[in-house]
From TrEMBL:
Cleavable signal peptide: none
Source organism superkingdom: Archaea
Pfam families: DUF1485 (PF07364), MlrC_C (PF07171)
InterPro entries per UniProt: MlrC, MlrC_C, MlrC_N
Residues of the Microcystin LR degradation protein MlrC N-terminal domain: 2-288
The name this protein goes by in its record: M81 family metallopeptidase
Ranges of residues in domain Microcystin LR degradation protein MlrC C-terminal: 298-460
Amino acid sequence: MKIAVGAMSHETNTFAMGTTSLETFDTAVGSDLLTTDRVGRSIGGIVETLDDAGVEILPTVGASALPAPTVETEAYEWMKREFLDALDGESVDGVCLDLHGSMFVADEPDPEGNLLAAIRNTVGPNTMITAALDMHATVTERMVEHLDGVAGYRTAPHTDVVETGVRAATLLLDALNGDTDLALGWEPFPMLLAGERSESEAEPMCTLVGLLEDADGREGVYDANYFLGFPWADSPHAGCHALVTGAAGAQVVVEEVATDLAEEFWRRRDEFDFTTEAYDPGTALDEAAETDARPVVVADTGDIPGAGAGENTTNLLAAMLARDDLGTPLVAVVADVECYEACREAGRGEDVRLSLGRLYPSGEPLETTGTPVAFREEEGAQTVLVSLDGVDVIVADRRTNVHRDPEFVRRLGVDPATRAVIALKSGYLSPAWKEAAARRLFALTPGETNQQLADLPYERVPRPTYPLDEDATWQR
Ligand SMILES: [Zn+2]
């Protein structure tokens, strides 16, 4: 048995400035795909499962990047060509892919659907294709048309990415070994939902994820999923979805389960509140100043690099500089290559003038003076801890998500436990930061990942959509 594998992973923020080129992606072609962990999060679970089953694996291509602005057409076309070239002339029994599911290309709002259609055209109508998708995938009609089976993350923060790859590969292997066809049941519904309101340990998401596990137990159902889409993309395909994989012989049940899951989610639509105490920025800092819990970690939720924002707004930092009741707070991270270079040239302990980041929405930099304290390379990014007037800030030479791990700030010489207030360019915190934080707050800052979705300038999202249209109705 021979199965082709590949990965294409991007969550595109269409509100973010600029475009994303191929150079931004980590890529791997051919056998390199099997040995790297940088081109997808579920591909490792897929490969391991197929390996264990003694299957011959045909590696194609992998490409993954931190969430970022709209992807350039040339970048996507390169990925697609690599997929098709690798499959050309090959006879495979199945295809198993690791896709995020929310990529947006300059002239193609549905690249995953476009890719799957092209792969389908190459491997033929009878070769099964399964995929692992992120919980924040935007599912499209074309994706459903060309996919036979789907597994999605059931945790947010995402801690089951490898297991999801195992599930996608198992769906394919079981179908091939059992000689049964797969069926999909798909029920989209008109709703936008931020991850900051739908962590899987918070209600109502916790109960809804439990329903997926119950659904898996139904006769003929193999893998039931919710996909929540990605609200910081102005996509004509935006929305939430129930998507269920089962046996072809149980198509009616599979569709029924998808409808039931969608209806239950929709019924609870107004229960999705912020999973962390959320305030306007000024009130969040007041709360941070007054609490006894130390450290309090404040998420700068309008500028989340993990959701594609520029990681360079200084609105919250400016507000922190204007106060003296936060101890010596730490801000991680502001991406600004010129400021990083200025710090490097000045050297440790030397004062340096900085025009840092940008105030949103004016774009004006924050004019300040700082003293570089410590330098460090982390995951390919050059970073420096800079002491400003009363606030320490970590500046990086590029966008990076390294602050997800509190060990990173420890390696720069800052023990989080010794700071009263730490501000992170984050939405919901990583499990490690939840552990380190005595109290967590959301500062609802303006920016490219604005949490007040109704304030975003959507033009392509179908209307009515909840909560942009509070009175939106939907009935199957
Ligand atoms: Zn996600």
